[in-house]
Amino acid sequence: MLPHRLVPLLPVAAALLLALLGVAAAPQGFWRVVPLVVLCVLYVLAGRRRA
Amino acid sequence: MTTLDTVGLACIVAALLAHALRTHGAWFAAIWLGLTTVANLVVDRFGGVGLPGGIEPSLAAAAAVYLAALFGKGFVERTRFAGGVVPFAAIAAACAVAVALAAAAWLGLDDAAAIRALALRVFLFCAAYRTVSLRTQHDPTKLAILCGVGPVLWAIEIAITRVTA
């Protein structure tokens, strides 16, 4: 039902949505979501490097 | 919570539930979502580190625990990091700090309290998962064991919190 290639990206999508909600709730404290966004980028890069 | 928050929470939980179903199976998904949601309500009731009570914050806490654990597990697997129970759980707990900061901004929580609560939960969750999976390999009883140790972990959380409070 769900393409297998997309499964590893589901947590990244969920994390980015969480980051978006965080920024929307506290625009002045946007720095709080920066570590999570960095984590998403590293996670994707780690997967690409292995592949 | 506003409608946007509720829709966002539903999307996050749906994405993570689909991931859990696809990669770990229905039993794990049921245990993760059911156990951690109920656990947050219980911890809130008896005064643990505590994220807010109520069903929506508890679902958000459950999603945050799984998300952080997933990132930790992902880094361990993707970088072929070969560690035991404690390093595995420690990496996941470090990821929990990043998730906790975003969750704190979203739910309007105190940063330090949210980091402490989520890092501790993720560390305990991952340590239990890693211990059970290392000892039982693919034995179908491992999830039943994990289900059994869950309540003990939350009791430990409440105990630790009360000692350090």
What can you tell me about this protein's structure?
The complex is a heterodimer of chains A (51) and B (165). Chain A has 51 residues and is mainly alpha-helical. Chain A has helices at 10-25, 34-50. Helix content of chain A is 65%, strand content 0%. The mean pLDDT of chain A is 86. By secondary structure, chain B is mostly helical. The two termini of chain B are 29 Å apart. In chain B, helix 1 packs across helix 2 (26-46). The A-B interface holds A 2, 4, 7-8, 10-11, 13-15, 17-26, 29-30, 32-33, 35-36, 38-39, 42-43, 46-47, 49-50 and B 4-5, 8, 11-12, 15-16, 18-19, 22-23, 63-64, 67, 70-71, 74-75, 78-80, 95, 97-99, 101-108, 111.
Residues in β-strands, percent of chain B: under 5%
Oligomer: heterodimer
> If you average the pLDDT of chain B, what whole number results?
78
Pick out the low-confidence regions of chain B. Answer: none
| Content of β-strand of chain A | under 5%
Secondary structure: number of strands of chain A: 0
In helices, the fraction of residues of chain B equals over 70%
Number of helices of chain B: 6
Q: What is the CA–CA distance across the termini of chain A?
A: 23 Å
SSE-based structural type of chain B:
mainly alpha
Question: Based on CA inertia axes, which overall geometry of chain B fits?
Answer: globular
Order of helices and strands of chain A: HH
Largest interface: A-B, 33 and 34 residues
What portion of residues of chain A is helical? 55-70%
Number of helices of chain A: 2
Order of helices and strands of chain B: HHHHHH
Radius of gyration of chain A: 13 Å
Biggest sheet overview of chain B: none
The residue ranges of chain A in which pLDDT falls below 50 over 5 or more consecutive positions are none
- Find the structural class of chain A using helix and strand composition: mainly alpha
